[in-house]
Amino acid sequence: MNILVINCGSSSLKFQLINAETEEVLAKGICERIGLDGSRIVYQPTGGEKESTESPMPDHTQAIRLVLESLTNEKTGAVRSLDEIGAVGHRLVHGGEKFASSTIITDEVIKAVEECNDLAPLHNPANLIGIAACQELMPHVPMVGVFDTAFHQTMPEKAFIYGLPYEYYKKYKVRRYGFHGTSHSYVSKRAAVLLGKPYDQVRTIVCHLGNGASVCAVKNGKSVDTSMGFTPLEGLIMGTRSGDIDPGIMEFIAEKENIDIYEVMDVLNQKSGVLGISEVSSDFRDLQVAALAGKEEAIRAMTIFAYHVAKYIGSYVAAMNGVDAIAFTAGIGENNRYVRNDICEYLGYLGIEIDQEKNSKAGEEIIITTPESKTAVMVIPTNEELVIARETFALVKQ
């Protein structure tokens, strides 16, 4: 069965067509600038050339239409007709407490996701638009929702309750939810394979380090804590997000700058993180170039970022009373050896010994510690699309 995986943003749409039996990617691409001038679709069939075509996309329905046309194109299409697509798997960011696992999308599910919109106002509405577009163009194809938050629903109350009046949890479900769940799930499973141990007998700390970043403690196959919280703003310093701060800073800045809470939140989400600290860039590739050139502001941002990741790792070692493996993933985690090395320099107490030759590798699955290291450190490229395809296939083949 071929599964179409859709990851829908407010103005973009990523897609992959995956053969669920062989797990081969048949084609992939992205629609960019949906609803804006200069919209385009980038499409690449496996083994073929990448194609970039500018085409008007006033809405997501048109974007989906172009995706389907590309997939069934006579010359470069991955399938001959839409009849060869057995199901569609949708990435859904927030399922609240309603969804602890993936689910077949029904009208009731859509309503429940809509009720979570105020928990993820930038993501859930866009995800729902993608579902509606697919349902319009592929009305008889089953749809599955795979939630970023679902993997973290195994967290115990002691990990997800905030130090706020408990009534806010009872009335509004204010709690830690966590994100990047599909990535943390995939990487922690691969870590167990690399260790040669059963998944339910391994303690792994997954560091998903990209422009958005989070750390997750996975004990015996279950998420027991994670750094992102009620929103993706909590936790690590990220590309443009502040991560953990003293909440009192919000009132202080609002008064000093004469701005309201919405403007303060914009600062925390869009103008902070390594961008705000460095005043150079939110892109770690730019920061790394600047740091290697000796620019103090870039060095400062990178140093602070690594320190905060190491602190979270240490706290999760305590939460699980030990750790068997630490896994780096996502854009920075997979490709930036300097960041990995800087983080691991704080972890000597775990008996970690980095093999610098192995650590110099980028974008490949590898254990980067020496055989003598007491704790394994590894790099595992994430594959959220494959997780979505697997979850979708498991549900629709029943």
Automatic annotation (TrEMBL):
Pathway: Metabolic intermediate biosynthesis; acetyl-CoA biosynthesis; acetyl-CoA from acetate: step 1/2. Its EC number is 2.7.2.1. ATP binds at residues 14, 208-212, 283-285, 331-335. The record marks 180, 241 as: Transition state stabilizer. Mg(2+) binds at residues 7, 384. GO terms for biological process: acetate metabolic process; acetyl-CoA biosynthetic process. It catalyses: acetate + ATP = acetyl phosphate + ADP. The active site is at residue 148. InterPro entries: Ac/propionate_kinase, Aliphatic_acid_kin_short-chain, Aliphatic_acid_kinase_CS, ATPase_NBD. Its cofactor is Mg(2+); Mn(2+). The keyword Signal does not apply. One of its GO terms (molecular function) is ATP binding. Belongs to the acetokinase family. PANTHER family: ACETATE KINASE (PTHR21060), ACETATE KINASE-RELATED (PTHR21060:SF15). This is Acetate kinase. It comes from Anaerobium acetethylicum. The lineage of its organism: Bacteria, Bacillati, Bacillota, Clostridia, Lachnospirales. The gene is ackA.
